[in-house]
Design goal:
This protein has 108 residues and is of the alpha+beta class. It contains three helices and four strands. It has a four-stranded antiparallel β-sheet with strand order 2-3-1-4, covered by helices on one side. It is elongated, with a radius of gyration of 15 Å. 16% of the residues are buried.
Length: 108
């Protein structure tokens, strides 16, 4: 199991569609959205601040390439934040649920 961490603009309409597609397609087993995070960063020599949403996507390791390709194609940011977390210890019953709820990617 992996967890992808990404951020989205504070507009939830497109995000809701992406979440629904990831779950219904079977790429992800569970997605959590954390609203109203304030992000600070430097752009063109100036300090910028934005309100964003943090999204945690739980999915089987086998779906990483499919998830990455989908997010890069459909994410509203030109360069989306994609951080993959690999938990060292996951409850076996929960891990089985994640594996059973998400489908394995189609072979090419």
């Amino acid at each position: 199991m992996l967890i992808a961490l990404t951020t989205f603009p504070n507009d939830g309409r497109k995000l809701k569609q992406l979440i629904q597609w990831l779950i219904k397609s079977g790429i992800a087993a569970c997605i959590q959205r954390i609203n109203y995070v304030k992000s600070y960063y430097m752009r063109e020599g100036k300090l910028k601040t934005e309100e964003e949403k943090i999204v945690l996507i739980k999915f089987p390791k086998e779906n990483k390439d499919q998830l990455t390709a989908f997010l890069k194609k459909n994410h509203p940011y030109q360069i989306p934040e994609l951080v993959f977390l690999a938990p060292e210890d996951v409850d076996k019953v929960y891990l089985e649920r994640v594996q059973s709820q998400a489908k394995k990617p189609a072979k090419k």
